[in-house]
Amino acid sequence: MTMRRAILAAGVAAVCALSYAGQMPPAATSFIPYSDARPILEAFGNEAPEGLGRKSAEELEAQWPQWVAGRDAAIRARLEQGDWDTLVHWMMFGTSFTKRVRLTPENIQNLEPPATAAASPGATAAVEMLRGRMEDLVDALSAKAPTQNERILFARRMLTKKGFQLEQAAGREAAREFLRGQLARMLREQAGYAETLDAARRLGNATEEFAARSTLYRERGLSLDTSLSPNLAVERSLAELQRRGLLARGSVRRVAIVGPGLDFTDKQSGFDFYPQQSVQPFAVMDALLRLGLANEPQLRVTTFDISPRVNDHLTRAVNRARRGASYVVQLPFDAGVPWTAEMRAYWKNFGARIGTPTAAAALPAALKHLSIRAVRIRAGEVAQLRVRDLNVVLARPRLTANEKFDLIIATNILVYYDSFEQSLALANVEHMLRPGGFFLCNNALLELPSSRVRSAGYLTTQYSERGDDGDHVVWYQRQKD
Ligand SMILES: C[S@@+](CC[C@H](N)C(=O)[O-])C[C@H]1O[C@@H](n2cnc3c(N)ncnc32)[C@H](O)[C@@H]1O
Fold first, then answer.
1. Is the model more confident about 397 or about 369?
2. Shortest-distance Cα residue to atom 27 of ligand 1
3. Which residue has its alpha carbon closest to ligand 1 atom 19?
4. Quick one: 389 and 310 in the same domain?
């Protein structure tokens, strides 16, 4: 067992029993100082990332500011790749630009990109569907009629920025060619993730498997995807922390949501028939109020995200709320999925403490089998949100002791980073948490000896009876200094 594995095994031993696999100006944040990174660099030794291994302490200290700034730029650059992934998913599943049948997770297995823009007699039904969808998407993006469809506007901006002249036939063909390339890359990557997961399962050790899953997307484009399910896992963890006396009624006042995400077209369901939305900040508020862990007048929620799209979306919502406008969250629910009773109940009751039911978006013909409800979240709840730009891997907000957080939540974000970057992120989280405060995360993170954040337990939540449809949420607690 290597040192890192030993640390992991000690740190998340509890997980062994698991059974399945208006933005802040830059001056208000600072990069992780070398003094906080040093113990992490020491623990990783020669396994530190390129450019940092095999260096003396003096060399590392001198090099640190430059390395951090360069790494920050490199991480932010991964957002573009994530946007292309989103566009490809939208092409496969979306219903707002085409009337053609949606692809399903089943017919994506073994899918290949269509070879040409023209129909090909030997192509499988799925490839033919995809070819038609690509045609429709490019047609919609190059249509002259004005549109308010924010997804079309976004996709058009992306392709235009890349230099494709969609008003010309040659530009459209080049855009199709480019999309085919993106699709091929994404399918290759997906096959790689499936292999890694298989290999992790074959380890036959739940802790090792969880660890392997926890860095699965470390080289993937940064995706903004979000859905309702992880919020059930967070709510159940909060309830369990309360039941065990680790969180007291009314004790949560300052909450941070790292990586709240933006629902453009979810990778599994791909719904695009309602405006883009963020869910997690509201889900967490709802849960804390429902459980009595927070009292409404004192609750302050801050979101920290690296994505300008997420931050702009939330900033606009907050600005509108300050002028009295509520925020509507749409909650599509596929009744055909064998959801657990808890997931069904969660969907049904979502938002009861922060809003009221309202008319849901009309279901498109292709999605008539869905159930849907919508919640209108009160302007007062939205207006108290603070929206901040932050790369949590490399930076932290400047906070006084009184401004530190009681609770920080980060689901489906650290899986995009390797163990070294996750350790830096944990050091930043440590800086942001008050002593005794909790960090809830659905990844197994290394707990290096220098860290004052330690796992206090975990909870597994199953969303449906489909294989692998659930989350382990680990409760990391900030120890006293
Ligand atoms: C896949 S989404 C998850 C959204 C939501 N937490 C959920 O579980 O549904 C990941 C989110 O984390 C953000 N993110 C990724 N890397 C980040 C980083 N280094 N610092 C802050 N936010 C980050 C992305 O922009 C995105 O909003």
1. 397
2. 261
3. 391
4. yes
